[in-house]
Amino acid sequence: MRVDIISIFPEYFAPLDVSLIGKARHKGLLDIRLHQLRDWTHDVHRTVDDTPYGGGPGMVMKPEPWSEAIDAVAGSGGPPPRLIVPTPSGRPFTQEVALEYAKEPWLLFAPARYEGIDARVMAEYESRLRVDEVSIGDYVLAGGEAAVLVIVEAVARLLPGVLGNAGSVTDDSFAPGAMAGLLEGPVYTKPPVWRGHQVPPILLSGNHGAIARWRRDEALRRTLAKRPELVARLGPEGLDKRDREVLGEASFRFGPEDMAN
């Protein structure tokens, strides 16, 4: 996969040289290219922002440098990339979206600063590229670079060969499969007893069926405790008899209209 990032702070992306992402780049699984937005300015101050029309606080990123940068990068060969713009007003970034992006051969990120990018830039490129405005959460950052780091890591680890154990992806919280829609339960490693805390005996039993059931029970309990709306979203049709027992122990009930189905 090719990933291009246009930013006024390309040095912000040094973490992409370490850990799994750094190894993926070294192995050629991930081609990340950084671009300085100011390279597409034409004044002595290399200006990328100006005051907003209509007044108000803050500055707005100018359309000219962004358009020239996107044109240059997106036109550098092959089918056009998918343009991703992090913004609090975008659609929520989820594991489902990460899986969608992992199927793309080329992603182009445009992280904004200040009050954002002149809206005409998105209007211009929506007719020429697939443009996604994406939010990583209901909060505001100083700039979109941190959001790009989050998205790139979430997507890159889904690429074949990036993780040492491909099964890690299928066991993730929010991943499709047996645990779809649930948070991952607690995990343990050696020693079996640490500071008086013992690993649950079932995990030492070697009974893989019972272990799988225990893990689902714990995933249900953790999800109910921390993200009850996710359990409600599953609906009773997505639960088996034991699931209902676990939820019943916690006094969780679906609505009467659900239980009638």
Descriptive overview:
With 261 residues, the protein is α/β, with parallel strands linked by helices. The protein contains ten helices and nine strands. The strands form three sheets. The chain has a five-stranded parallel β-sheet with strand order 2-1-6-5-7. A two-stranded antiparallel sheet has the order 3-4. Helix 3 (95-102) crosses helix 5 (145-156), helix 7 crosses helix 8 and helix 7 packs across helix 9 (241-249). It is elongated. The two termini are 44 Å apart. Homodimer. Its EC number is 2.1.1.228.
Shape field: elongated
Number of strands: 9
Question: What average pLDDT do the residues reach?
Answer: 92
Straight-line distance between termini: 44 Å
Radius of gyration: 23 Å
Order of strands across the biggest sheet? 2-1-6-5-7
Order of helices and strands: EHEEEHEHEHEHHEEHHHH
* Approximate helicity band: 25-40%
Number of helices: 10
* Biggest beta sheet summary: 5 strands, parallel
* Residues in β-strands, percent: 15-25%
Structural class: alpha/beta
User: Low-confidence stretches at least 5 residues in length (pLDDT < 50)?
Assistant: 257-261
Function: Specifically methylates guanosine-37 in various tRNAs.
Domain tRNA methyltransferase TRMD/TRM10-type: 1-232
Binding site for S-adenosyl-L-methionine: 136-141
Main location: cytoplasm
Describe this structure in a few short sentences.
It is an enzyme of class 2 (transferase). Belongs to the RNA methyltransferase TrmD family. The chain is α/β, with parallel strands linked by helices.
